[in-house]
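Note to self: keep these together.
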Amino acid sequence: MRGIILEGYSNSGKTSILNELKKLHCHDHNNERSFIVLSEHYSQVLHRVNGELKFLNQDEHLHILTERVKMLKQLSLWAKGVGASHRSKGVFFILERFHLNHRTAFSHSGLHKIKEIEAELCGLGAKCALLTISTDQAENRLKSRNPEHWKSKTEKETQKAVDHLIHTQHNLRQHASDTIIPTLELNTDQQDWESYAKVIYPSD
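Structure:
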């Protein structure tokens, strides 16, 4: 088993790169035939429930992450049990907004449990890509997804959003340096999703 975890602020390119990674994986018929992709909707702290945003507390989010990792571990054990020694019979996974999302949201709380989850992910062959945006590109990237939404925002509101992005990225970097999971930081200013996917995709 092996996998990739995509982390980063909104608009950093996670979904675009995820789509390119799927293409790369399917292109090589020697790759794992079992391919699991869990988008951020299955793992992030902030959820939309019946049209309303809900912010999970730390225990709720830890429970979700634990259940997702448990599922992967069960699949890994199954593969070993049936003698899946060839890569084509193994499992490849992609997770979006996972451990670093948790660390950043609950940075003032204990990290013992999330470190245990990270150790299990590492044992499953996980590697992480932290996608970032340069400070001078932050405002343009925020506005790129929904330009109409930002037309009604004041300069002060826009700057507050930009500052939040920059602050969150700083926290993500700090936690990336602390986690046991091998992490690559990748600047996505050029929005060259195919090239970024090729850099991220594991060659071993």
